[in-house]
Amino acid sequence: MSSDLPSPCPVVVAQNLVKSYAPARRGGTETVVLSGIDMTVGPGEFVAIVGPSGSGKSTLLSCLAGLEPPTGGHVLLLGEDPAKLSRGRLARLRRSGVGFVFQSFNLIPSLSARENVALPARLSGRRVRLADVTAALAAVGLENRGSHRPGELSGGQQQRVAIARVLAARPRVVFADEPTGALDGAAGTAVLGLLTEAARTGSAVVLVTHDLDAAARADRVIVLRDGAVHGELRAPVAADIFAAVHGDPAGALR
Ligand SMILES: Nc1ncnc2c1ncn2[C@@H]1O[C@H](COP(=O)(O)OP(=O)(O)O)[C@@H](O)[C@H]1O
Ligand SMILES: [Mg+2]
User: Fold this and answer.
1) Which atom from ligand 1 is nearest to the alpha carbon of 178?
2) What are the distances in angstroms from CA 34 to CA 20, 55, 109, 175, 192?
3) 9, 41, 49, 217: which sits with the fewest CB atoms below 10 Å from its CB?
4) Which CATH class is domain 12-248?
5) Residue 26's pLDDT band (boundaries 50, 70, 90)?
């Protein structure tokens, strides 16, 4: 392979990303949550972010996705700096190119599965074809649950509706924060399979998880500790990730 081929434009870039919170009371100390993160996610890449509870994973994801403004440094999301966009342009960028999957599913309870899947397209004023919605539900194995409301579905099924909603929009990047956190093993495995498939078919995936087996499905794993990148692993097995997170010698685990 020639080294002078242009490298594809990254979908997410963080440069010296800092996030801190002002003291809750006068005279208190500021909380530094992210202390200078550099990372890049390429098109179609599946990147997992792991680290102990409180290490800053959710905060990092929120900053990368343009949901939280950084205190310092820069983020580029699909080539744009969210901090420099108007609220309207940022909302449009998110609607057209970004998908979110949260631990709590975030479905609209009063809407059917089909209506939930169609919602992002409706909100951005696009025509929604029933065939596309049906295909998205079929892709997550829920073709016969389209008229059910979230309350009539199991947790695993609700998360699959949330993923169908993301897939129907064909985003260039999917951000997922502990998407399997509220699911049992089999339902969690199904959800991870769908995220892996999304990455295989062209969406970049940024997955925050404390599940090391889930992280081991990623092309690359970024290990956070105390708000800084502690290490980065390519195509690791779960034992390598455990060692990197907990600082134990990998050899002792095998
Ligand atoms: N709004 C906030 N104000 C002050 N501190 C916060 C706020 N949000 C998060 N934090 C702190 O940031 C740290 C990292 O939180 P978080 O990103 O949720 O970690 P993780 O997802 O890795 O468990 C925690 O110590 C948390 O208390
Ligand atoms: Mg978190």
Assistant:
1) 21
2) 7, 8, 34, 18, 27
3) 9
4) alpha beta
5) confident
Chain segment 83-111, per-residue pLDDT in tens: 999 999 998 898 889 999 998 999 999 99
* Exposure of 243 in the CB half-sphere (CA atoms within 13 A): 14
When pLDDT is cut at 50, 70 and 90, the band that residue 222 belongs to is very high
Which residue's CA is the nearest one to ligand 1's atom 9? 59
Q: How far apart are CA 110 and CA 202, in angstroms?
A: 32
Nearest CA to ligand 1 atom 16: 56
φ and ψ of 136, to 5 deg: -65, -40
Give 8-40 as a 3 state SS string: CCCCEEEEEEEEEECCCCCCCCCEEEEEEEEEE
3-state SS track over 54-75 = CCCHHHHHHHHCCCCCCCEEEE
Residue 197 CA to ligand 1 center (angstroms) comes to: 30
pLDDT band at 248 (very low <50, low <70, confident <90, very high): low
Helices 130-139, 155-168: axis angle to 10 degrees equals 130
pTM of the shown model: 0.91
CA 236 to chain centre: 19
What is the whole-number distance in angstroms between the Cα of residue 196 and the centre of ligand 1? Answer: 27
* CA–CA gap between residue 235 and residue 194 (Å, rounded): 18
* Tokens (6 digits) for 58: 């959710």
Answer whether 47's CB lies under 8 Å from 222's CB: yes
Q: Tell me how far the alpha carbon of residue 226 lies from the centroid of ligand 2, in angstroms.
A: 13
Q: What is the pLDDT of residue 250?
A: 47
